[in-house]
Amino acid sequence: MSNIVIQTNNLSKRFKIGTKERLTFFTSLRYKLSGEYPETDLWALKNISFSVKKGEMIAVIGHNGAGKTTLFRILSGILKQTSGTYNITEKVSCMFELGLGFNLRFTAIENVYLYGALHGISRKEIDKKMDAIVEFAELDKFMGAKLGEYSSGMISRLAFATVIQTLQGIILVDEVLSVGDIGFQKKCAKAFEKVLNEGHTILFISHGIGEEKRLCTNALYIDHGNQMAFGPIKEVEDMYYEKMKIQR
Amino acid sequence: MVKSIKQYWLMIWELSFSDFRLRDQGTILGFLWTLLYPLLFFCVLYTIFADWMKTIKDFPLYMLIGMVQWNFFSGATTAAISSIMRYSNFVKSIAFPKECIVYASVIAVLYSHSLELLMLIIFCAIVKGFISVNIFFLIPILLLTLYLTIGFSLLLALIGVYFLDMSRIWSIITTMGFFLTPIFYSLDMLSPFKRNVILLNPMTHIIKATREILLDGKFPELNGLLYTFIFATIFFIIGYILFKKFEGYFVEKIQ
Fold first, then answer.
1. Contacts of A169 (CB under 8 A, 6+ apart)
2. Is the ipTM value over 0.90, yes or no?
3. What residues does each domain of chain B span?
């Protein structure tokens, strides 16, 4: 089938816990000589296989630390998988812990330009979209202020607006909706609906029972890195709630 | 393909611009400080060495040229070591070719270096009273310096991600390098053996060629520059290959 935009085969990721910290030359030499590394293996993802068709919205659910963000980081090309393969036919934009890709010492406008540049969008093209970004983020008075002066809500609004207005293909959304207030959440859900209608594909992580879920077709349920289920959202969600022992 | 090369340059350009502003806080005074540093350093060295180095023609300019070229190399490579950490935000949340950060970090230093070179040309023109046509040969020399610096920077940025103390170690090496480069002395003052050792240093040839152009108005000697080019190419290839091999794991190393 040609309209499959994401296809993963047995995607796995192993982290070595304990070595994230950068060592000095001396310490690493000592570890090398003694043969002891202070690290343990952690399989964040094991054999994840699923496929997504163009224009679908997929919910990724699972407990904290299940490997959801790791999956998104691999799909977006930020992390390398340990084994398995994946194939993505379109460009990927992501919304991670909001504002992470921003520099607090720059103003909002400078950050938007920089974000654009790192996604291959020129200043000219950004300029065309700037009004829409400012309007969506509701920050018209503050675009010249440094992000360090922003509240976390303002940063997340700016990030969401920037990503949604410069979207190029697939969008990966990592629990960003929980940051804004209800009004903004509604706005975001509407934006997602619009984006879906334009033919974009959305994958998003969610714990809650937000209203954006009604847009989803399928859901992927991950538990401790294992793929528990992939299928229609209703069934997968029921399974998840039962496992988590949550009364609906 | 053409579009992706354009996007690549866009990334480098925007990052270098932001790096430049981050370093100087985006102020004119901050920028002046970066120019003032070599000037003050020059004054100190000049007061001490001017009497000893009477045999060197145009000693102040001779030394200034050496310092400007050396400072670019040491400043840019030092900035490159922490470049990936400086942009950890982007590394963690956006997938893009990480070498752009290193290139941008070097190019951000190139901005002030170009201005220093320009001032140097003006000084030389005033003091010597001529500008030779060979001055255009400074452009390939600048590119060669950039090439050499980028090769070193890729390697250093990579090591800098994995080891905390690389900046410390590199600051010792650059301090040693300052004395192992003919900045305030000339090659003729050394014994043949020592001279050959100093000639292994690629920066020696860059500084030598710059002096030949600016002070003597001569066409620079090409053998030394060819050596530097080969040296730079080896470092660039090793640096680039290793950097690309490990860049996918940077995000697991940085906080």
1. A5, A90, A91, A92, A93, A200, A201
2. no
3. 2-253
In a domain, A122, yes or no: yes
Model confidence at B59, in pLDDT bands (50, 70, 90)?
Answer: confident
Tokens representing A67 are: 């490997």
| Sign of the torsion angle spanned by Cα atoms B19, B229, B176, A28 | positive
What CATH number does residue A95 fall under?
3.40.50.300
The amino acid at B126: I
What tokens were used for B187?
Answer: 């090659």
Within-domain flag for A28:
no
Q: Are strands A40-53 and A4-17 parallel, antiparallel or unpaired?
A: antiparallel
CB contacts under 8 A, B 21-50 vs A, are 21-22
Pick A78's closest partner by Cβ from B6, B95, B253.
B95
Distance between B173 CA and the closest CA of chain A, angstroms: 15
Chain-chain contact of A101 with B89 (C-beta, under 8 angstroms):
yes
Q: Which of B93, B169, B245 best probes binding to A when mutated, by most A CB atoms within 10 angstroms?
A: B93
Task: Measure B181 CA to nearest chain A CA, in Å.
Answer: 27
* Structural domain total, chain A: 1
Residue A32 resides in a domain: no
Nearest Cα to A53, choosing from A163, A170, A168, A164? A170
Contact A25 B169 (CB under 8 A): yes
The answer to whether the Cβ–Cβ distance between A117 and B15 falls below 8 Å is yes
pLDDT tens profile A132-167: 999 888 888 888 888 888 888 888 888 888 888 888
Whole-number average pLDDT of chain B:
89
Instruction: Give me the pLDDT at residue B152, please.
Output: 97
Instruction: Please give the residue range of the domain that contains residue A182.
Output: 55-83+90-244
A232-246, B4-18, B183-197, range with the lowest pLDDT: A232-246
CB within 8 Å: B96 and A100: no
Secondary structure, 3-state, chain B: CHHHHHHHHHHHHHHHHHHHHHHHCCCHHHHHHHHHHHHHHHHHHHHHHCCCCCCCCCHHHHHHHHHHHHHHHHHHHHHHHCHHHHCHHHHHHCCCCCHHHHHHHHHHHHHHHHHHHHHHHHHHHHHHCCCCHHHHHHHHHHHHHHHHHHHHHHHHHHHHHHECCHHHHHHHHHHHHHHCCCCCCCHHHCCHHHHHHHHCCHHHHHHHHHHHHHHHCCCCCHHHHHHHHHHHHHHHHHHHHHHHHHHHHHHHHCC
Q: Which two tokens stand for residue B107?
A: 């190019």
> Given CB atoms, is B164 within the 8 Å cutoff of chain A?
yes
